[in-house]
Write a structure and sequence with these properties.
With 476 residues, this protein is α+β, with helices and mostly antiparallel strands. It has helices at 108-126, 175-186, 195-205, 221-243, 289-301, 303-317, 321-339, 367-381, 401-418, 431-443, 449-472, and strands at 4-12, 15-22, 32-39, 44-54, 60-65, 74-81, 95-97, 103-104, 130-131, 141-149, 157-159, 162-166, 208-217, 248-257, 263-270, 392-393, 397-398. It has 3 domains: 4-124, Sandwich (Immunoglobulin-like); 130-170 and 206-270; 283-472, no CATH class. Helix content is 38%, strand content 22%.
Length: 476
């Protein structure tokens, strides 16, 4: 095999010259194709791939303008091949450290020293302990390993405290062919699914990866699990944008160390909320064959209803209470925009206009008014009382629908403006937020904001479901 015996990089007048010399040019068809990668404190990235032409001194050469940099770059020659794609052997690491000024790029000990400096800085940047809320320095450190599918990564990538690692040869979903083959046999089919081909298709369609949250300081394993799930979910939201598809968490493992410092599994968990729909079957649980067919036909005939159903299904899949409420409110606002005239005024129980601080009447041009008027319309068309769309508890008293909708719009606005209901770190809740949290906490079965928030979500879900059923039944 032909080998590389010498290589060099020169930069002069913003021009980079790459020179390659081989031990034997016989049988080598030019040009020589090479690839350079760059090492920095973030990672290893592609720098350049080009072709060298033969020159008079017996070597091969490539020249190209090079962009100036605010740091001295460290490049690595990772591959050389000829025009026939015959690989040229690179016998030892070919590193090139950019000079302070123009001239020959440094190799040898100076380049190796820079590589070590970069590697140490890389570890310092990424091998950090992530701290869960309400933790202190005396709490133990855990690790979380999270299984993800529908995420394609081609190499291990790191961000501070976490790494994403591709899984090659994933068997996720391989049991699908077994289940389907069993059903096919019950239906009398003679030809069955090829399990091997099924697995190949699954690996191609649903690439899998591991998210490793390396060090989590937390008071308990349960807190570490909740912290890592939220962190991974936020990272996957970013990857959905970058990769153009939505990754999904399957589940994971929480780990710690034993008395000798060896890693041990402390427990596992599955992601996604468990089934929370009707547990009974039959007529009262949505299985009535007549209503299924009527509602299906209504949805098939109206693309708006299909959109609304899809948006509601998306809302139900979101495990964060404030995001789910955000999605439900936006859905109601969108439906109201189509059904409620924009100039319609909002009236109180006595038929008087509800007035804003500036004395002007509320109209359906405001989000709160739109959703309120839609709820009243749906209650009327369904022969329901408007109070059915509010939280009603004897110890808390009846909440007016207008005020109930104000809670929803406050949460929606907070999520839209700051990304969540919770105040950003370092900021105290506003007076309005504190008032709403007190109201919601009273709704919780245990008096906490967490359970009260979900009770509030259940109220807005009632409005959404009543609205969608009214649409399916052509009442609105």
């Amino acid at each position: 095999m032909t080998s590389l015996v010498k290589s060099s990089l020169q930069s002069n007048d913003s021009l980079l010259t790459v020179s390659l010399f081989l031990d034997n040019d016989e049988g080598v068809t030019g040009p020589l194709h090479f690839t350079l990668s760059e090492h920095d404190e973030i990672g290893i990235t592609f720098f350049m791939s080009a072709a060298c032409e033969r020159v008079k001194n017996g070597g091969w050469e490539f020249k190209h303008p090079i962009e100036p940099s605010d740091r001295r770059r460290l490049l690595h020659l990772v591959q050389v091949s000829d025009a026939r794609e015959q690989v040229i052997q690179i016998p030892e690491s070919q590193l090139f450290f950019e000079p302070t000024n123009e001239g020959t790029w440094r190799g040898g000990d100076e380049a190796e020293a820079e590589l070590k400096r970069i590697s140490d800085a890389h570890e310092e940047r990424f091998s950090v302990i992530l701290t869960a809320d309400n933790s202190d320095a005396s709490d133990p450190v855990y690790a979380s390993i999270v299984l993800v599918d529908n995420l394609l990564v081609t190499a291990r990538r790191r961000i501070p405290g976490m790494a994403v690692i591709p899984i090659t040869g994933s068997t996720l979903g391989s049991d699908g062919s077994q289940v389907l083959n069993s059903v096919l046999q019950q239906f009398g089919y003679k030809s069955l699914i090829d399990p091997d081909q099924w697995l190949v298709n699954m690996q191609r369609r649903r690439p899998a990866a591991i998210m490793h949250v390396e060090k989590i300081r937390a008071p308990t394993p349960q807190v570490a699990v909740a912290f890592s799930r939220e962190l991974v979910r936020e990272f996957l939201d970013l990857m959905a944008l970058k990769r153009g598809d939505t990754p999904r968490i399957i589940g994971g493992v929480i780990g710690g160390t034993d008395s000798e410092g060896a890693p041990q599994c402390l427990g596992s968990w599955m992601d996604g909320s468990q089934y929370t729909g009707n547990l009974i079957g039959g007529f009262t649980a949505g299985e009535d064959p007549h209503s299924i067919n009527v509602h299906w036909q209504a949805a098939r005939n109206d693309p708006r209803i299909r959109l609304w159903l899809s948006l509601y299904a998306d809302a139900l899949s979101d495990e964060r209470w404030d995001y789910r409420l955000f999605r439900c409110f936006n859905l109601l606002e969108g439906i109201a925009t189509q059904l409620i005239p924009s100039k319609k005024k909002v009236e109180d129980a006595a038929g008087k206009p509800r007035l804003k601080v500036d004395g002007k009447p509320y109209t359906a041009q405001e989000a709160r008014s739109k959703v309120y008027l839609l709820a009243l319309l749906v209650a009327e068309k369904n022969n329901q009382a408007a109070s059915n769309f509010t939280y009603n508890e004897k110890r808390d008293g009846q909440v007016d629908l207008w005020e109930e909708v104000n809670i929803w719009v406050s949460v929606r606005n907070s999520v839209a403006h700051t990304g969540s209901w919770a105040s950003p770190k370092g900021q105290s809740p506003t007076t309005r937020q504190s008032d709403i949290e007190r109201v919601m906490s009273k709704r919780g079965h245990d008096g906490t904001l967490a359970s009260g928030a979900w009770a509030t979500v259940r109220v807005i879900r009632t409005v959404v479901e009543s609205t969608l059923f009214a649409a399916l039944q052509h009442r609105i």
